[in-house]
Amino acid sequence: QVELVESGGGLVQPGGSLRLSCAASGRIFSIDGMGWYRQPPGKERELGKERELVASISSDGLTNSADSVKGRFTISRDNTKNTVDLQMTRLKPEDTAVYYCNARLRITPTGSWYDYWGEGRQVTVSS
User: Fold this and answer.
1) In angstroms, rounded to a whole number, what is the distance separating the alpha carbons of residues 88 and 126?
2) CA–CA–CA angle 32, 36, 42 (5° rounding)
3) Is there a contact between 102 and 117 (Cβ–Cβ < 8 Å)?
4) Rounded alpha-carbon distances, angstroms, from residue 126 to 39, 74, 92, 121
């Protein structure tokens, strides 16, 4: 009933830029935080290894980001469209990962908040 559809990403040389976009649709009453997480190659096989937070943004626009991307990545959101974007600049090889969109939302006024995830977009930084 709720779907997060991601777009963007791809292959870029070190120092380049990419943009990721995510749109939430379906039966949504309200969205709290939205964000982007990533899982570097090979890490998915490590037991207990979770996706790392890249950046997040609250419903009123407060942002948080990993130290490794501060000053290079910018997260933004459009509450009227239920979208969240991640502008990535000065990309490095260590940014290579599958990037996942996340939204914490509820589908009824009094329902519980749940985390929803997109399917992931590959970002590869290589010369």
Assistant:
1) 15
2) 140
3) yes
4) 17, 21, 8, 16
Within a 13 Å sphere around the CA of 49, how many CA atoms are in the beta-carbon half? 10
For residues 73 and 90, give the distance between their C-alpha atoms in angstroms, rounded to a whole number. Answer: 8
Distance CA 16, CA 49 (A): 28
Residues 48-83 have pLDDT tens digits of 457 899 999 999 999 999 999 999 999 999 999 999
Residues 102, 31 contacting (CB under 8 angstroms):
no
For residue 109, give the 3-state DSSP assignment: coil
Query: What is the tens place of the pLDDT at every residue in 86-120?
Result: 999 999 999 999 999 999 999 999 999 999 999 99
